[in-house]
Amino acid sequence: MKILNLSASLLVLVILLVTHSLEVQAQSCRPSGKIRGVRPPPGQCNQENDSNCCIQGKLYTTYKCSPSVSSNTKANLTLNSFQKGGDGGGPSECDNQYHSDDTPVVALSTGWYKGGGRCHNHIIISANGQSVKATVVDECDSTMGCNEDHDY
């Protein structure tokens, strides 16, 4: 009987530790550093879709993580062009291609992108009472920014 109680107690303790560890991990997405903005070369900052350009000397917060994913994860949406010459920068990471702005595609932040592990998966984007299914084709690199690949 004592062995059974000890085993049950250990099992409950392990479950509590794992649960607590997962909660801490889910809540531990904090800024991972800062990068200093650089002035884009003349004509290199594409402000299509109201994009902002990096400001010389300004410190920008970087993240290596993203909040945990659920069926209803809140996120900030920015509008970028994935066409060649658009404000999305270079070709997409998943397939090294440009994509028509008529095709619903997305770039996920560094943590959600999972090193390409979510390439070609679909996500549902919902806002203002409407939804659209989009294909993951790129990473919105939240650790680099302010360079040619990220269209300054």
What coarse outline follows from CA principal-axis ratios? Answer: globular
Radius of gyration of CA atoms, rounded to a whole number? 21 Å
The average pLDDT value, as a whole number, equals 75
Class from secondary-structure proportions: alpha+beta
Strand content: 15-25%
Helix content: 10-25%
Overview of the structural elements:
The chain has about 150 residues and is of the alpha+beta class. The chain has a three-stranded mixed sheet. The protein has a two-stranded antiparallel sheet with strand order 1-2. Strand 4 and strand 5 form a beta hairpin. The longest helix is centred in the first third of the chain and has 26 residues. The radius of gyration is 21 Å and the shape is globular.
How is the secondary structure organized here?
Layout: H1 2-27, E1 33-36, E2 59-62, E3 105-109, H2 110-113, E4 122-127, E5 130-140
Parallel strand pairs: 3-5
Antiparallel strand pairs: 1-2, 4-5
Task: Briefly say what this structure is.
The chain has 152 residues and is an alpha+beta fold. The chain has 2 helices and 5 strands.
Any key phrases for this structure?
single chain; 152 residues; alpha+beta; 3-stranded mixed sheet; two-stranded antiparallel sheet; 5 strands; 20% strand; globular
